[in-house]
Structure formats: C-alpha cells, structure tokens
Amino acid sequence: MIIGVPKEIKNHEYRVGLTPAATKEYIAHGHTVIVETNAGTAIGFTDDQYVEAGATILNTAQEVFAQAEMIVKVKEPQPNECKMLREGQTLYTYLHLAPDPTQTKLLVESGATCIAYETVTDRTGGLPLLAPMSEVAGRMSIQAGAHHLEKAQGGSGTLLGGVPGVAPAKVLVVGGGVVGTNAAKMALGMGADVTILDRSLPRLRQLDDIFNGTVKTVYSTVDAIDYYTSKADLVIGAVLIPGAAAPKLITKEHIKNMKPGSVLVDVAIDQGGCFETSKATTHQEPTYVIDDVVHYCVANMPGGVARTSTMALNNATLPFGLALANKGPKQAMLDDEHLLNGLNVHKGKVTYKAVVDALGEELNLEFVKAKSALAL
User: What is 131-299's CATH superfamily?
Assistant: First the structure.
C-alpha cells in the first residue's frame, strides 16, 4: 500500500502523522511511504531521516494526496485537504466530527473511508489512540493555566503552589478520566489545592486510591459545580463523551460568579467545549476574557509540545495503521471490532451514531452501521 504523510497546516501545528521510525516499520512490512517535504522538520525529523528510513519525499500536499492510498495525519483535514480526498482512499487521523458540520459534509462528499483516532476502542472500553494526547493535554492544561494566572497574562496574579504562609491556588478538574487524572497529577505536583468532580462513584474511588487522599474527590451535581467553580482559581474542563459533542457543564452564570482573574482551560474544545462560553482558539492567540475570567481554549493543545506528542501518538497509532495497510482497510476493520469503531465515514455514509445525533438534522444525514457501510 502507498502511505501518504502530508505536512499539517493547522495554525501552529507541528506534529506529523509518521515519525521516521514508524515510516521504517511500514516499509519493513512491504509498503511504500511518501512524505511531503518538511513535514516533520520543525520538530527535528528531517527529510534526510525519512529518506534514510526508506520514504520518498514529495514537494506538495497535492502530490501526496494524489498518489497515496492511505493518508496518515494528526489533525482533522482542513477544507482544502478534504477536497483532495477521493473514493477508495483511506484517511487515518483525528476527526472530531460532531461539532464540525463543514468537515463532516466535505468528508461525506469525498467518498473516502475516514477512520477517527478518537473513536477506536480497546478491550477495556478505553480509547487507546486518544489516550496519549489526553495525557499530554491534561498535563499541559496545568502549565497553561498556571501561566495565565500570572497578572501579566490577564490572570489574578496567583501562584499555583503558593509559598509558605500563603495558601495555594484552588484547582477544579471537571472530569476524572485520562485528561483529568493527568491534570490533577501536575497540579498536585505544583502544590495546588486540587478537587476533581466526576459522576462515576467507582472512578472517584479509584482516584481517591491513586492520589491517596491528597486530592478531593466530589460527586458532580449542579450544586457541586455551583460551589466549586465560585471558589476556584483555575478550572480544567476534562469532560468526554466519545465521538459526541461535549456537554456544557459550566454555564455563563457559573462564569459570572467566578473570581476576577480566574482561568478556564477547556481541554474538551475539540468536541465543542464543556464551558458555555468556549470558542476555539489557537496557540498564536490562545486566550480571551469574558466576565473577567480568562478562557484558554486552544483546539490542538498537544501541538504545543509537538515532538513529545508525535512520538507518543505514533506509539499508539502504529499497530492499527499497520493492520489497515497489511490487510486492507475493509478486512482489517472486519477482523477487529475496536478498529471498526473508529470508522466514522465510508463511501458517503456516516457510520458513527454520535455524529448523526449531533449533525443529522442540519446535514440531512442518516446513520448506517459500520459493517453495513463496508458491505456497500
């Protein structure tokens, strides 16, 4: 199979779909890899390294899309990239379709087979291709939040860990999954006063064991959100419903009642955000202020530490990618129900129900089960 790796074009996105090491794995399995020039140069993966791994370097994304049978990316394709896709071609990347009608419409029109990293599952019910970026984003959320609490960044001027004689900042983490756990680890390590809200009692028990009681675990109710947001210096939005738009758990009223100069970091922004006032921002202009509360809603947070993120992502995506290449996408998905769960669009049909639930009326979409779509 011919595997294509275009350069990412989203604002300040330096990650790359394949590292030279992953490229070498595909080639060792008998595949051809074509890489757009300078696809990984910004994070230290040079064209020469890809050539040494056995890849062919092409000058433009158009050439990569035209020749490749499977496109391996990181971020969702931008509109001009969607228009380069074609029927019979496979796209393997993050998609986050539920809050994105434009991308969904273009992918449906392309006829391509589109597999979303974020909806591939594993035997434990986890999301193995989302987890590494959730780990990165969770840890970065605290770095970003601590930075924007500084007065010069618009924050209240509060040091996250405090100092002897001065209380630390109060950090509220909404959601106790991978993002929330990693955020709590970082915040606790920096000396903050950390509270996690979640609606799963078993998960709260796990978190209490993980942190040995050093983090407050609270069952999430409307009353709890009212109380803890009003006390928080930093709130991390770490809520996920796989493949679906994130619920707006923090409302405009909550934000009006927060302390001036407090900071919100919405890690769920890829799925539309879990704060009512959230709108996607970029690394170039990461924040805005509403009701004296700083909002950080960067939609590709792990792109800020692109080298670490790329290597972590490749570790997770490589086995599934090799299966797609070795067996062909259809057979690979029929052989592995977890990979099949990653299928979101195929030959103009939407195969992930949460996307249809979110956009079906707007785009006149009909849900088709993945196996039924593959039979077309």
Answer: NAD(P)-binding Rossmann-like Domain (3.40.50.720)
DSSP-derived secondary structure letter, 46: -
For 227, residues 6+ apart whose C-beta sits below 8 A from its C-beta are: none
CA gap 70, 335 in Å, rounded? 18
Q: Provide the CB-side half-sphere exposure for 177 (13 A, CA).
A: 22
In the chain, domain spans: 2-120+306-374, 131-299
CB atoms within 10 A of CB 39: 26
Q: Which fold does the domain 2-120+306-374 belong to in CATH? A: Rossmann fold (3.40.50)
Phi, psi of 44 (to 5 degrees): 90, 5
Positions in the chain whose pLDDT score sits under 50:
none
Return the exposure string of 189-228: e unless at least 16 CB atoms fall within 10 Å of the residue's CB, then b. ebebbbbbbbeeeebbeebeeebeeebbbbebeeeebeeb
Give yes or no on whether 2-120+306-374 and 131-299 have one common fold. Answer: yes
Q: Tell me: the pLDDT tens digits for 252-282?
A: 999 999 999 999 999 999 889 999 999 999 9
Interatomic CA distance for residues 222 and 164, integer angstroms: 34
Catalytically active residues are 96, 270
Q: Cβ neighbours of residue 164 under 8 Å, at least 6 residues apart?
A: none
Say what the pTM is: 0.90
The CA distance from 253 to 225, in Å, is 11
DSSP bridge partners of 343: 115
